[in-house]
C-alpha cells in the first residue's frame, strides 16, 4: 500500500463545497430508524477529528432510554419558554415562539457530546495556556460527524436550549465531563441548501468577507 497522499481533483472539490452548502441544522425528522452500521460510521468519522495533544477528549453518550429522552425534551421545552422571555414586548417574540427549536422527540437517534476536561490521553500537551482547546477539539469532532451524516442523507440538529448541569444530571456522567452538544440525528423530513432560520426570516446569511480583518 502506498503512503502517498491521495489527489483531490476539481470534481471532488466541487462536491465537497456542495456538501458544506447542504449541511443543515435539522429540526424536522421522519421516523425512519438509522442503521447501526451508519451510526458506527458517523462516530468513527467523528473520531478522526484533530484534537489538541491528540487528547481525543470527546465522549459520546447515546440516549437509548425513553424516559430520559422525554425528560430531555421536556427540559428543552422549558428552557425555550424561558428564553422566549428575552423577546417579550418585541416583534420577534411571536416569531421566536413559531420556530421549532429541537427534534428531541422525533429524531430516531440522540447523542450527547461531552468533553473530558481531564483526559489521560494527550498528557496535557497544548492546554497549559488554553485549556478550552479540549472543548474546541470536541466541536471539530461534531463537525466531522455532521458532514458524515449529510453524506449519508442523514440530518443532524444541534440543540443548544438546554442547561448543561441539568443534562449532566439526567445522563449521570462523570463530574470531569462538560456538555458540548445535544444532537438529534435522523432522516430529515425535507431538505434544502438554505438554513431554516433564513427561510423563516429570522436571520440571513451575511457575506463571509464581512468577517475577515487584516492588521
From TrEMBL:
<dbReference type="InterPro" id="IPR050627">
    <property type="entry name" value="Nitroreductase/BluB"/>
</dbReference>
<keyword id="KW-0560">Oxidoreductase</keyword>
<dbReference type="InterPro" id="IPR000415">
    <property type="entry name" value="Nitroreductase-like"/>
</dbReference>
<protein>
    <submittedName>
        <fullName>5,6-dimethylbenzimidazole synthase</fullName>
        <ecNumber>1.13.11.79</ecNumber>
    </submittedName>
</protein>
<dbReference type="InterPro" id="IPR012825">
    <property type="entry name" value="BluB"/>
</dbReference>
<dbReference type="Pfam" id="PF00881">
    <property type="entry name" value="Nitroreductase"/>
</dbReference>
<dbReference type="InterPro" id="IPR029479">
    <property type="entry name" value="Nitroreductase"/>
</dbReference>
<dbReference type="GO" id="GO:0102919">
    <property type="term" value="F:5,6-dimethylbenzimidazole synthase activity"/>
</dbReference>
<feature type="domain" description="Nitroreductase">
    <location>
        <begin position="20"/>
        <end position="187"/>
    </location>
</feature>
Amino acid at each position: 500500500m502506498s503512503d502517498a497522499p491521495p489527489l483531490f481533483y476539481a470534481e471532488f472539490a466541487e462536491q465537497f463545497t456542495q456538501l458544506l452548502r447542504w449541511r443543515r441544522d435539522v429540526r424536522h425528522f421522519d421516523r425512519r430508524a438509522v442503521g447501526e452500521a451508519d451510526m458506527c460510521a458517523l462516530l468513527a468519522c467523528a473520531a478522526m477529528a484533530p484534537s489538541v495533544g491528540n487528547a481525543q477528549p470527546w465522549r459520546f453518550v447515546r440516549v437509548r432510554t425513553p424516559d430520559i429522552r422525554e425528560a430531555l425534551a421536556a427540559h428543552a421545552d422549558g428552557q425555550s419558554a424561558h428564553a422566549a422571555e428575552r423577546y417579550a414586548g418585541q416583534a420577534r417574540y411571536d416569531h421566536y415562539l413559531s420556530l421549532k427549536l429541537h427534534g428531541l422527540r422525533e429524531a430516531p437517534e440522540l447523542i450527547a457530546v461531552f468533553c473530558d476536561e481531564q483526559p489521560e490521553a494527550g498528557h496535557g500537551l497544548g492546554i497549559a495556556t488554553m485549556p478550552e482547546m479540549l472543548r474546541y477539539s470536541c466541536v471539530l469532532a461534531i463537525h466531522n460527524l455532521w458532514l458524515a451524516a449529510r453524506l449519508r442523507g442523514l440530518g443532524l440538529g444541534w440543540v443548544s436550549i438546554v442547561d448543561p448541569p441539568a443534562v449532566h444530571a439526567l445522563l449521570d456522567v462523570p463530574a470531569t465531563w462538560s456538555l458540548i452538544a445535544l444532537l438529534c440525528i435522523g432522516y430529515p423530513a425535507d431538505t434544502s441548501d438554505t438554513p431554516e432560520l433564513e427561510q423563516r426570516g429570522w436571520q440571513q446569511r451575511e457575506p463571509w468577507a464581512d468577517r475577515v480583518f487584516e492588521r
